[in-house]
Structure formats: C-alpha cells, structure tokens
Amino acid sequence: MRFSPLFLGWGVLVLGMTAMAEYNGWSLARINQVENVPKTVRDNPGAYRSTYGYYNRYIGGK
Amino acid sequence: MSSPAVTPPVVKAKALHCANCGGPVELRGFGHTLSVVCPQCHAVLDVSTPLVQILQRAQEAQERVHPKIPLGTRGQIENVAWEVIGFQVRQIVVDDVPYSWDEYLLFNPYYGFRYLSEYDGHWNFIRTLPLVPESVAGARPALRLRGVTYKHFQHSNATTTFVLGEFPWRAHRGETAAVDDFIAPPRMLSGERTDGEVVWSLGEYWTGGQIWKAFQLPGRPNPAVGVYANQPSPHHGRAGAMWRLSLWMLAALAAMMFYFTVSARREQVYAERHTFSTGTGGEPSLVTPVFELKGRPSNVELQIRTDLDNNWAYFNLALINQDTGRAWDFGREVSYYHGNDGGESWTEGGQSDSVSIPAIPPGHYYLRIEPEMDSKQASSMSYDVSIRRDVPTYTFFLIAAVLLMIPPIVSTMRVGAFETARWRESDYAPSSGGGE
Hints:
The structure holds 2 protein chains of 2 kinds. Chain A has one helix spanning 5-24, and one strand at residues 32-34. Chain A is built from 1 helix and 1 strand. The longest helix of chain A has 20 residues, at 5-24. Chain B has 3 helices and 26 strands. Chain B has 3 domains: 14-214, no CATH class; 233-264 and 394-436; 269-391, Jelly Rolls (Sandwich), CATH 2.60.120.200. In chain B, helix 2 (238-263) packs antiparallel against helix 3. In chain B, 14% of the residues lie in helices and 47% in strands. In chain B, the strands form 4 sheets. An 8-stranded antiparallel β-barrel of chain B has the order 7-8-9-10-16-15-14-13. In chain B, strands 18, 19, 21, 22, 23 and 25 form a 6-stranded antiparallel beta sheet that branches. The chains are: A mainly alpha, B mainly beta. Chains A and B meet through helix 1 and strand 1 of A and helix 2, strand 18, strand 20, strand 21 and strand 22 of B. Strand 1 (32-34) of chain A pairs antiparallel with strand 22 of chain B.
C-alpha cells in the first residue's frame, strides 16, 4: 500500500474543519451582521431598516 | 544480490584483419562470435571459420550510428559485470511511420549474452528464455510465464538497419524478424520468429539513470519521452490506497455526524403564531418577546410555517442582541403555488422555510419580523415562527464527503490516463476499439 501523507493531511484538515464548523454552528446562509442597533427598535420596530428590504423576489407560478 | 560481482577476466581480445579493407578487427566474445562488423569499413564479416569471409559490404550512403554506450564498455547489472560487444539498430513501420530502437549485445563469459534495448529514453534489460510460455485462453492473446500473465501488446516486423561489433549469429543489415510483444509491467515478453524458429526473451524496464549509473557513463541520459509499453506506472497502487484511506475518512466523518446529531440540544427558545394582511394600513413589522440563548456559541434555526395558497410572502428578519445591539439581518421568501395544467397537477415551492443563523453567542435576544405580500391584491396569512438553538446541520458533512473523494477520483483518473497513453501505442489503441 503506497501511503499518501499529503492526502492524509488533506483528510485530517477536512475532518477538522468540518468538526469546527459543526461545533461552532457555522452556516452558509446569506446573513449580514449589523452593529449598534438602537434599543428604541424594541419599542418602535418600524424604525429599523432591513438590509434585505428591497430584495428582488421571484413571483412564482406557471 | 549480496553475492560478490561476477567480473569477467581481463583477457586480450582476439584480433584479425578485415577481409574487405584489411583493417584490424577485435573479437571480445571468445568462441561465441559468428559475425563481426569492421569498425573501419562497416563490412559484416563471417568469423565462424578461420577463413574470414565477407557477409555484407557496407553501403557508402549508410549513415554511421554512434551507440550511446560505446563498444567495450563494462557495467554492473544485477551484480554481474557485462561488456558491450555488439550494437544494432532495428526498425518497425506502423502506418507508414518508421520507428527505430537501439539494441546492445552484452557478454559475460560465465553468464553468456544479454541485451539492452533503448527507445526514446526507455531501456530494457533482456535475457533469452530457455522455455516457451503457456498460451492463455481469452478474447485477447495472452501468455503465462512463472505465474504471471502477459497481455499481447503489439505485433510487428522488425528489420535490422545498422550493425556494429560482434554477434553470436550472422547479423547483417536487412535481417528481419516477426516480433510479438506481451506485457506485464515492468516486464515484457517478446517472441521473435525467424525462419520458423521462435526465440522468447524477457525484458525488464530500466530507466536511463539506472543504465548510466550501471555503466558509469558520462553526462546524463536523454529524458524518457512518452509512456513505454512495459514502463511501470508511477501511480500503480496509489489509487487503491487512496480509496481505502478515503473510506476510512468517510467512516470517521459518518461517526462525527452521528455524534453531532445525537449530542445537539435542539433547544426551542421561541414559538408563536402571527397573522398578516395587506391593506390594513398599520405598521407591518413586529418584535418578539426577549428570549435567552444559553451555553456556548451555536447555530440558531429559525423556521417559518405559513398557510399560503397560490401566493407568496417575504420576511425581513433580524435577530437582535438586546445587550450588545448586534443584529443578524436576513430575508426569507416563502411561496407556494399549485394547479392543474392539461390534466396534470403541479406544485411549486412550499408553505414553510427554515434558515440556520451561524455561531450566535449566548445572550438575550429578540426577533424583528417584517412580512411583505403582494400589495396589488388583498392578501392575508397566518404564520408560525419558531426558534431553536444548537440544531444539527448536514451541509458541511456533505461538502466534506465530496472534498474527501476528490483526491482518489483524481488519482484514479491519472492511472487511467497513464494506461491510455501506454495502450495508445499498441495494436489495441482505444481509438481502434480496444485499449485498457
């Protein structure tokens, strides 16, 4: 059996990254982080402007 | 291999005069030599009897070929000292294209004769066989020798185009032989048929570097070009080893997936039903009560279930940390359509959706929800929103499985490419419907 240390290293890296991603709850979802949201949003939700407020949505149906 | 090298005694070569030009000719092959080529005029001389006769005169236009290993050079192969005493160039013609290779005759008085062949930087150390290989039944001709099966590679008619030195047969230019090559890399079994007689020989692949070292030749050998018939594959055994290692890694990945699946807490921190309708004129956005996320940073799964029917809704969402003011802002679309088209029912989309929000640290949070629907028509819906933390996801496991399989797939493709290149030069080239 011809052992490939490069492939073993690649495998360990992939497995390690997967474990880290799962443990930390990483996700591929398209999500923005916004800092310093004012506390007044809690009382006045309409004051918050969403990043995705003007999302180009597909209107389905055949 | 550990026995001492068998070196032929240093004896004075027998000398004679060329019957054509009168020049001196040396004989190194003791009493085995039947023909020798005069180094001055290239006439081929029959030296089997004391009366030296001319077998073939040199053609004036004949191109002189200089062997890469000069005649008289001694080298160690498999712990035996061999002396180069003869050299010939042989040629086959395939599809009107001539292919030439060099053959060196090696001699040791205790071991007899061996051959070295060289084509485009690929070398073979060849010995004649005292036995005839067995034929193996199958779709393609094959032979078995000492438990190894050799596949037929090529049939050709070889013609000698140049000779130099001495030979234990009456070698001459224009000598022809029908050659069949069978391969089991790194070995090649060759049968040469001349005048109803078949001589079998077994060659073993050597690199130019090994030959240069064995004969202590100056400089460096020409690099090997292409893939030779019995050249051992540099990828041999590697693909299988990589697949075995890949399977172990996939098993480890499956074990890891099982662990994260059973150890995930799936802790529900919020669940509530809401309603929304267009045309009411009020503020569409709302915020949920504050809920607490405990423990280590983990993902948060948000799920929306609606009662949409041939309609769509869009949700602007923000998970806001009440303590730090940091928000995770995103949007989700839910649409569900169905109908009947030409007697065939169809559906599109779904009434629910979920998203995994990554690595949310512990703290006090609330969710801002701003639903939208088609403002051109009166629409309403009710929807359930639920939030859970530490929920297992499988996307990264799927990606990891693909990444773990890429190297063995690439290795397998390289093995295939090498074998395709090998068999491209055979009678079973892939383009002619055969190949490996």
